[in-house]
Design goal:
The chain is an all-alpha fold. The protein has 5 helices and no strands. Helix 4 packs antiparallel against helix 5. The radius of gyration is 29 Å and the shape is elongated. 8% of the residues are buried.
């Protein structure tokens, strides 16, 4: 793998670990079991906390604990700065909306402040975790779909050859029955091939159309400039 790809992968992994560390503390409160209540049950909070800890250990083994700590502090500083600005802006918008509602006759009580930097930061951390999780799941599912497609093709080929061998080596039937069976086998193979090929062609056409639209937009932007 090229060095640029390694660096990008390590950066994304470190970002995921930093985002996960921010939510691991909150999740650990839900995963703790009071003493004397029997064996601990597996909950969503415990599962998320364990996953975050494993990601943290793996990221530390790749980039080192110092780099991960520095990345965590940097992301926390950026998120805190953005959260303070976003909270102040949202509070101003909430005040204006409340005044508009009061003018129109609605009695609305506004708690001040309605938005806090801590709440906005928590939402931002969860949003970052969701985005990175979406990216990771997209990559994993694409790989799984490709593997399943290859396995299906191999299984289809092996099954067709096995059925062909059974039909040809059958000695207790006549030539007409053998021909009908072979025709049914060939028809089934053709239908399966057409169905799979049609979906792949539709996907390829959609990809080509999207790339063509992007090129047209780029040309239009160049003409405007």
């Amino acid at each position: 793998m090229p060095c640029g790809g390694c660096a990008a992968a390590r950066f994304l992994l470190a970002a995921f670990a930093v985002a996960a560390l921010g939510s691991a503390g909150a999740e650990s409160e839900w995963s703790e079991q009071p003493a004397g209540r029997g064996p601990a049950t597996v909950t969503l909070g415990a599962l998320l906390t364990g996953t975050c800890r494993e990601v943290q250990r793996y990221a530390e083994s790749l980039v080192g604990s110092g780099a991960l700590r520095a990345a965590k502090e940097f992301f926390e500083m950026v998120i805190r700065f953005l959260a303070e600005g976003a909270a102040s802006g949202l509070n101003v918008i909430a005040v204006y909306v409340t005044e508009i509602l009061r003018v129109t006759g609605f009695d609305v009580a506004l708690s001040s402040p309605l938005f806090t930097p801590e709440g906005v930061a928590a939402i931002a951390q969860w949003g970052l975790v969701a985005l990175i999780g979406y990216w990771v799941l997209t990559v994993v599912l694409r790989l799984l779909i490709g593997v399943v497609r290859r396995v299906f093709w191999v299984a289809k080929t092996v099954l067709a050859l096995w059925l062909f061998g059974l039909i040809v080596t059958e000695k207790n039937v006549g030539a007409d029955v053998t021909a009908v069976r072979l025709g049914g086998l060939v028809l089934a193979c053709v239908l399966l091939t057409l169905l799979t090929t049609r979906s792949e062609k539709a996907r390829a056409v959609t990809h080509r159309l999207s790339s063509l639209e992007d090129r047209v937009k780029a040309v239009e932007k160049r003409k405007v400039e």
